[in-house]
Write a structure and sequence with these properties.
Number of helices: 6
Strand order of the largest sheet: 3-2-1-4
Structural class: alpha+beta
Largest sheet: 4 strands, mixed
Radius of gyration: 26 Å
Amino acid sequence: MTLAKPQSPMSDSVRLIKKYPNRRLYDTQTSSYITLADVKELVLKHEQFQVVDAKSGEDLTRQILLQIILEEESTGSPMFSHDALTQLIRFYGNAMQGIMGNYLERNIQAFMEIQKNMQEQSRTLYGDSGKASQDVWSQFLTFQGPAMQSLMQTYLEQSKNMFRQMQDQLQAQTRNMFTAFTGPAQAGEGGKGTGEKPDEPE
């Protein structure tokens, strides 16, 4: 069992939330119990927090985030289709699991950069003093619809090419590795065919 590490001086601003055996979440900053919806609000506000088991100190942050995603996918408009979820499941235990995780993380980061740039453009055009309201942001996206679709299409094509390059590199590395392993054996078999006797170990 992995115990949560003590907070370092650089992580003093991290909000500590404790989860008790009764599944209740306790916010140590406000000294009050909170719900999963409250944790979601912390995520939306970009607040740094950590959820730990109140008894063992085990880090449960990732589990709580997955619970939030599950609730979001179960209600309203899900982000992942049936096909997308089944494909993700098939990557678990697959040799490509690590690469796929890194690939998805890079894509999310790149998409966030695109969103950030678009939001900055909306603030420049509409003069929202650094805080674009939801209505203004929606109007901006509607106005920029065709351009946004073209931008995303270009990005997806680049992303697809990047993934293919990753696959090609992996296959090349695999071939080189097997060549290194099988090369000496094949050479030995060739020696037997010519009647040569391999040297005996000293």
